[in-house]
Amino acid sequence: MSRPLSPTVAACPVPSTPTATVLLAHGGGGRLTHKLVDELFLPAFANPLLTPLHDGAVLDLGSARLAFSTDSFVVKPLFFPGGDIGSLAVYGTVNDLAMCGARPLALSAGYILEEGLGLETLTRVVASMAAAARRAGVAIVTGDTKVVDRGKGDQIFINTAGVGLIPPQVEIAPRRATVGDVILLSGDIARHGVTILSQREGLAFETTLESDAAPLADLVATLVATEPSALHVLRDPTRGGVATALCEIAAAAQVGVQIDERAVVVRDPVRGACEMLGLDPLYVANEGKLLAVVARDAADRLLEAMRKHPDGAEAARIGEIVAEHRGKVVMNSQIGARRVVEMMSGEQLPRIC
Amino acid sequence: MSRPLSPTVAACPVPSTPTATVLLAHGGGGRLTHKLVDELFLPAFANPLLTPLHDGAVLDLGSARLAFSTDSFVVKPLFFPGGDIGSLAVYGTVNDLAMCGARPLALSAGYILEEGLGLETLTRVVASMAAAARRAGVAIVTGDTKVVDRGKGDQIFINTAGVGLIPPQVEIAPRRATVGDVILLSGDIARHGVTILSQREGLAFETTLESDAAPLADLVATLVATEPSALHVLRDPTRGGVATALCEIAAAAQVGVQIDERAVVVRDPVRGACEMLGLDPLYVANEGKLLAVVARDAADRLLEAMRKHPDGAEAARIGEIVAEHRGKVVMNSQIGARRVVEMMSGEQLPRIC
Question: With an 8 Å Cβ cutoff, is A238 touching chain B?
Answer without folding.
Answer: no
